[in-house]
Amino acid sequence: MNILVLKMGGSVLAKLPDSFYETVVALKKQNICEPIIVHGGGPEINKALKELHVESKFVDGLRVTTKEVLDVAEMVMSGSINKKIVANLQKQGGTAIGMSGVDCKLLQAVPIDPEGKLGLVGQVEQVNVSWLETIMEHGAIPVISPISIDEFGERLNINGDMAAAAVAEALKAKLALISDIPGVMENVSGKEIVHDQLTKEEIEEKIASGVIYGGMIPKVRSALKSLSGGIQESVILNGLAPEDIKKYIEGKQAGTKVVMKKEEEQHV
Question: What are the residue positions of the site described as Transition state stabilizer (predicted)?
Fold first, then answer.
């Protein structure tokens, strides 16, 4: 299978046009590739936590997940957001199935922090590949919430970018991290440029210098991790310009590829 895992964060989801979902459905219907969506839900989780008066904090960009926070995160991501994405895909004529990492042990995880600083936060240890393949073979687009489960049946919250990378690794797929900007951008001599490609060394350098910051950090690091796991390639694409997805699939320049070694000069 030619598989493309698309990761969408909560802040991007609210901005995605109908044409984005139309493009994803077309990829499936026209047998261009098999799309899989993995999503987050940060802003809506924050809103729900505030409305329900549940306190939360972050450590190194990752949410500290208490049982109360996990319950809200699951309600928002596996419930509301997941079904909205499924509905949007089906509105464009597609067939989609919403699920979380808990279902059929899709994403089996272990705690990411043995010391417990991050609470009920995990990292994916195993992906139920055969189940995903069965869903795709039956004509549906999987839509995955990153709430996961451990071997003892306890739920764990997984960073969405990391969950998407794990799915891509397990399926030997391409990974597209969907953003609301054209890619990794940098101001060079007063002009904003989009990097065509970035290597591990360049990424770490740009994180240290502050060029890459905030929510882009877990995106580029997840892209790097997925490469080390043996997937074909990772790319950061602009979801507000769905034509970039088509360009990427066709082998044309779009977004920022994350590579182990530099292949081309950056695009100005």
Answer: 7, 219
